[in-house]
Amino acid sequence: MIQDAFDNQPVSVMVHACPDSKPPGYAHYIHFDETIEDYEVTIQRILDIPNMSKVTFRESLTKHFTVAFWNKINRLLVELRQRSIPTKTGYDLFYGNDNHRFDSLQSIPLHSMYLSMREFRPNYLPNTLISLSLLGESGFKLPPGSLPLQLESLIIGGHFNVPILPGTFPMSLMDLKITDNFNHPLDCTNLPGSLTKLSTEGSNFDQSISNLPSSITDLRLGTMFITHPYDHTTAQTMHVNSFLPHQQFTLQYPLLRDLSIWSYEMVDVTSITPANFPMLERLNCKICYKGSEFSTLPTMLRRLYFEPDISEPLDISRGIVPKLKPYIALPANLERLTIYGHIPLNRLPTICVDNLPSCLTHLRVHSPTYFIDPVKLPPGIKKIHYTNVTPDHYNNLLRHLPNSLTVLKLRFRQQKITNKYMRLSDTMFIKFQAKTVLLCGFIDLNTMFL
Predict the structure, then answer these.
(1) Of 134, 142, 190, 346, which is least surrounded by CB within 10 A?
(2) Helix (H) and strand (E) counts for the chain?
(3) Nearest to 117 by CA among 89, 88, 97
């Protein structure tokens, strides 16, 4: 039964033009050489794979799929599209020095494409495209009206760094990500009203966001966004990578539910209050100021992921251990808590974990500094994930394992594999390693001690 559950998962298939090693994330890998392989045999081999969710055709700089290849596998593409649950088809195409190998790709019924190219030609891409990734070379431009009318997701990167003209993006576009060199204005004049997600993470973008379409509910800004404030107040999800003094949250964000601050500057969470974030449910911040007051966070907050500030190191050179108490109290309504693990082991803890919120159900801790005595865990705790575990931590946890716990994940110090235990009864667990059922088995709690 367990193996059947794994076997029925949707799988991805890779058809590669050159005999590379199997890439990660693909259940089936097929090398196809046009000079040797039998087309019909290969087509049937693909069609016989159960539970296919996507087939990706990938080439390299030295091995390409020709026009004849696409003509001969047309039967495969048509059959995949006509299935009761259509199988998506993708094409990862690299031009190299051959920029005009195809007059047009419009006749190939593809769902997604990845292109690396010098110039973009109108009436070139399939009208069936839903997702497109473009890696442009120097001088690369996107003429208005050149993108497929059904396109929903677009990634643009490489040397692309020219102003975007009105009408460049189709009105079907919902997800836009611009990376690398780009740094030109984005606003209501050149972005469609259909857009719901915009990401400039990994780009040089540092332009005002005060006039973005109100339809954008998911906004993600990169580390180079440092000049302007975060004044797109209709977002429901916002990820930012800088947090300078002029970027403190002074406006109201009435719809924001998910806020991530991946800044290298310490974040003072006292600027995140119920008044300007009345709907905030999830907060993820890298390092918090020593004086941060968590009790003023929005009362709707249910998930908190953060790194405490790095406190003073322990000085035990004279055999004296300071008796200072942690000074950061956690919000009362938390259901999920993650404490990141960049804290050196010889530092004093700064978070008070003796009184965890009573409604906490998920706990993840990366530093032994914050491993919690099992007897102090809330009565409704369901999932625990500890990293850098020592044998002493492990044995102490097992001796006082809460009855409410359903999932336990542990990674021992200096190990890369996480052991996952799922509870079947008071004393019986099933153990997994990685994501494969082949490394699992039933285990009795009394045999788990080290």
Answers:
(1) 346
(2) 5, 21
(3) 97
